[in-house]
Protein: GNAT family N-acetyltransferase
Organism: Actinoplanes sichuanensis
Amino acid sequence: MITDIAALAADPSPLARTITVDGAGLSIRALLPGDGEALVAFLAGLSGTSRRFWHGDTDHEVAAAGWIEAIGRYDKLRLVAVDRVGLAGVVDLSLSLPEGHEITRYAEHGIHLDPERTARFGPCVADRWQGRGLADALIPPAWEAIRRLGRDVVVLFGGVHEDNARARRFYRRHGFTEVGALDMWRRL
């Protein structure tokens, strides 16, 4: 069952599913080449707080174009939740652990991250979906994708802001353990 990002880009159907959250139907699937406009709208629609806690203030069109261009390449897999309006959520998964980032930070706490077994995880839901259960519903498909890619350890992509108490509670509820001021991790 282990596959790779290129194989999932060629055939993303193993990741696709339909879910119901707060009475609404959504589809969960891999980001597709035709999602550029919807991704720009998703990024532009995030509040300043959501952008600060997730990917910061970047040029939405440039970021979306880069994400679309990276489909099936590099180390990234992005899952999206789609509702009747557009993209309702994005899960950013990465299979790389650049030296000087997560590997170094976790090593400072006595934790050795194996790059062959560890994935980085960064979810974000549209403001209209926050507090409605979508982030919780994105966990099982994200874990399935990570396992499909042969990984069994998850760390937060870039860590979590110290002042983001809501996110910290969410991650603890989903089995993450805090490591220092920024980092949280879990085994699948």
